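Q: Convert this sequence to structure tokens.
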Amino acid sequence: MARVVRFHRHGGPKVLGIETVNVPLPAKGEVQIRIRALGLNRAEALLRSGSYIETAQFPSGLGLEAAGLVEAVGKGVAGFAPGDAVSIVPPTSMVRWPAYAELATFPAELVVKHPPDLSFETAAALWMQYLTAYGALVDIAGLLRGDVVAITAASSSVGLAAIQIANRIGAVPVALSRTSAKRRALLDAGAAYVVASDEEDIAARLAEIAGSNGVRVVLDAVGGPAFEPLTAAMAPRGILIEYGGLSPEPTPFPLFNVLTKSLVLRGYLVHEIVRDPMRLGRAKAFILDGVADDTLKPIIARTFKFEDIVEAHRFLESNTQFGKIVVTV
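A:
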């Protein structure tokens, strides 16, 4: 028996509840983990509210990131033993493999022995943000030294991971945030420049920063009206990678900018990296190397207790956090 977080209907954070359930032994090819820490993601709030790409099956669990100790291994699993410290690459289905629990089971190929000097809190904050940013910037865009990359929602965990990855490569990360309130924190986190999108002319400011070369890569989680000024500042044959849709406003198609500059607008989900063993292997190597050389360091905004999962989700939806929200179990 173990405690798990589940919800029986869509709604706000208060629909989440902690229940005690029977957890079966791991099946063939699976690893069961005694969870010590969870990383929270906006995708979980979307599933809970009924607006995610996956459909909840009530009563539904949720959660995409966790770290803890191996409890048991299923048949056919090699390389893991009870007591190993591990963390979880986000599964393609959190309904099938939910992480919000004291005891949870995952496919062995998604379990990683993280560096032993990492705390469980840090390990639980690792994979979603860096896999998402790596997949967009390195795997798809082929970010190079000297490239100017514009990063929207820059104070999110993925935004901060993108800043660190850009710096590791030698690119120039430009952080976009709605206001200037987080300017100093973003600069301290490694942004070369900060643009306050509600206070400044986005296109003019990006053109000033990037000069005649323009912005070659845009990593956008927002959509909405900013598409027009973002693409206006892009370099010829630049690429805009869209991985979210935070704006409630319609997203215009910037036809003139796309045609005259031969731009690429690319939709992206981290699942395409997770589903491809070769791409996932390269991503894991890059991220673990970055953790080892201290160029990739998760920033944790706040830590909550497992019993305070409702409050943690309220904080997640406040949009005031800077970095990752972690829950300890």
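Residues 277-292 form the longest helix (16 residues).
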